[in-house]
Amino acid sequence: MSNTFRLGIVFTHPTQHHAPLWRKLNQQPGISVTALYLCNENQTSGDRHLGSSQPWDVDLTSGYEYEYLKTITGQVASKISKNLFHPGLFARLKPTNFDAVFLPSFYTLSYRLTVLLCKLRGIPIIMQNDATIISDDHYSRARQIALATLYPLMYSLADHWISSGDHNAIYLRHYGVSDAKMVRGCYPVDRERYEQTIAQGQDEIQRIRRELSWNNDTILYCFVGKYIARKNPFEFIEAITKAHRVDSRVRGIMIGGGELQAAIDQRLAELNGEVLNIGFVNQSQLPLYYAAMDAFISTSQFDPHPLVVSEAMAVGCPPILSDRCGNWGYSDTVQHRYNGLVYPYGQVDALVQAILSLTDAETRRLYSERSQEVFAGQDLNTELNAFLQVINRIRHAKNRVAEPNPDFANV
User: Fold this and answer.
1) Three-state SS annotation for 217-285
2) For residue 367, which of 57, 89, 318, 333 is within the disulfide window of CB 3.0 to 4.6 Å?
3) Are residues 234 and 248 both part of a single domain?
4) Does this model's pTM top 0.90?
5) Does residue 403 lie in a domain region?
6) DSSP assignment, residue 404?
7) How many CA atoms lie within 13 A of 175 on its CB side?
């Protein structure tokens, strides 16, 4: 009998944040990882929400076993959908194949089928999401009542939870997940890839900075993400414009794309270059752009755990974010006035003051150092260790079941 722990992953598609985790887990002694993907989004075409047709240009499928499951139509889906249903899960999810299965949510039909099959077949379920009470707050009162009834039942189906931050842990407890079921982790960012890209791209970083700056005194603040309503990009534009009137060194850089692209371009055309829209930047180059910036801003109306904040911190870019983002807290990604600033969503003048406070070079230097310090405790290795803790718990529980009861050993 093999002592290898066989971890199954049921996930929508390969992502730049989780694929390196599957690879690293698979490198651990006594652990094998197999990912069952529900679609190939970002691998054959771009992120439709970013308005890009370019697939991700970093390796997301080497170093571990994976398979693209076919839907009920017999095809591999090309995009995420709630209705994704994969009959192949019936044959794959068996105790003879996996010692535990990880999935992130109940969003798709196939996720729900995964939970059902694991419960029926006695396969331990590991879950992690990035949800927070903050992100649930925009729901209607009727939906919140429904969630209060359904989520405790649904979340109790998971045997183990990995929390992704302070607000996420509060959220899980709110919906009935006990501390005994929880291990603290994070949403992973591949620090090794970022550090390697930056070490090899110093000349390119300087070229980017020269290209985006008016002069050597320019202070660059970046917005990275989807140009959609809940990301609230116009608050970024208005705050940068106001801050520039006070300090002419301030300039905003927007990286991304999406449905608000035309409206953003129209607004920027009315300005005098205070904000530039770079558009889509692929994964291999994104660390270089972060490294060329002086500060990062997330203005989201609601955003459970925007990983762009962690990406910026990985290169020492100090963050400013709205209090409607879910990754700030005493021991979370952004710790107010320690490594970054949190401002009240919708209060443009408060954001302007935060921007102006980071025009001070010494404050930026201090927050930059502390951002890298905080991120070092929330990188890929932190999430790896959380998974290893859960795997050890499952192994120990299995061993206890297999041990004979001493009261009946000699019967």
Assistant:
1) CCEEEEEEEECCHHHCHHHHHHHHHHHHHHCCCEEEEEEEECCCHHHHHHHHHCCCCCEEEEECCCCCC
2) 318
3) yes
4) yes
5) no
6) P
7) 28
What are the helix (H) ranges across 303-345?
307-314
- Of 357, 361, 389, 336, which is closest to residue 126 (Cα–Cα)? 389
Rg of the Cα atoms in the chain = 23
For residue 410, being part of any structural domain is answered with no
Q: Exposed/middle/buried for 5, CB within 10 Å: 0-12, 13-18, 19+?
A: buried
Instruction: Tell me if residue 303 falls in helix, strand or coil.
Output: strand
In a shared domain, residues 161 and 277: no
pLDDT in tens, 182-231: 999 999 999 999 999 999 999 999 999 999 999 999 999 999 999 999 99
Residues 184 and 255 in one domain: no
* Residue 252 sits in the same domain as residue 387: no
DSSP per position, 66-109: EEE---TTSS-BSS--TT---TTHHHH--TTT-SEEEE--S-SH
- Helix (H) / strand (E) containing 34: strand 31-37
Cβ of 132: how many Cβ atoms within 10 Å? 27
Q: Extract the tokens encoding 165.
A: 């931050």
Compute CA distances 142 → 98, 145, 151, 156, 174, whole Å: 39, 5, 14, 22, 18
Residue 373 has pLDDT above 60, yes or no: yes
User: Could you give the CA distance from residue 363 to residue 285 in angstroms, rounded to a whole number?
Assistant: 27
Per the structure, the complete domain to which residue 169 belongs is given by: 5-188+379-395
